[in-house]
Amino acid sequence: MELVIDVDVKDTLHVEQVCKEITGLIINIMKNKLLKEYILQNNSDTYEWDKDDIYMCSLDLFEKKEPFISYTVQNKVYNYILNNDYLNIDGFVTFRMKEFMKYISAIGDIALEEYLIKKDQDEFISVLKYFINIQEEKIDLLRVHIMNDSSFILYDKYGNKIQNIEDEEILNMVIRENLNYEDFLISTLLSLCPKKIEILDSLKNNSSSEIVDTIKSIFGDRVSIILQN
User: Fold this and answer.
1) Residues 142 and 119 placed together within one structural domain of the fold
2) What is the C-alpha to C-alpha distance for residues 43 and 21, in angstroms, rounded to an integer?
3) Are 145 and 67 contained in the same domain?
4) How confident is the model at residue 2 (pLDDT cuts 50, 70, 90)?
5) What is the three-class DSSP state of 162?
6) Per-residue pLDDT tens for 168-182?
7) From residue 174, how far is each of 61, 94, 143, 144, 153 by CA, in Å?
8) 74 with 23: CB under 8 angstroms?
9) InterPro entries, per this entry (predicted)?
């Protein structure tokens, strides 16, 4: 269905208001029609059961970029209205906004990549939870201190430093999965299998926050955070 809007307004105030309203319509078309169509057309064969989740991921990405996209669209609409008395929304999107399909395709492709990464991470965390479930608790309390240089020190409930325990099965998994230094912390926690974990994060950046969140996702209620004085 074609949507044609009479835009026979020339004073600045009305032009800007009409531009905002038209831009809102176009953004909705981009999010709810064009982006969805791109996701479905490019992922239905390979990721048939994941396409709805990929679309939701793409919406999150779109909304992060929406202020910039809206600003760019509104400028384009404004310039068009100054020289025309009506605007066919479908025609405008199809013929005068072809370059915006680059945004759609880029967002869709990035969403797919991020979704697959998260899916792999979730599956890997499930594997780690499996290790927890099949192991007996080896120590009552483990204190984890994430240092400013991204290293970590482990202490028992008495404050004694614990040397990293080498569990052959865990270490083999780390090597096989090509895990990094932070992942090795997780593997060490798995090998120690504590009843309770207390974390002191001195680094306090995005990387350490992700580590803490991962530990929480694996060990659940066993984890508590120590606030630094």
Assistant:
1) no
2) 32
3) no
4) very low
5) strand
6) 555 565 556 555 667
7) 31, 50, 22, 19, 19
8) yes
9) Spore_YtxC
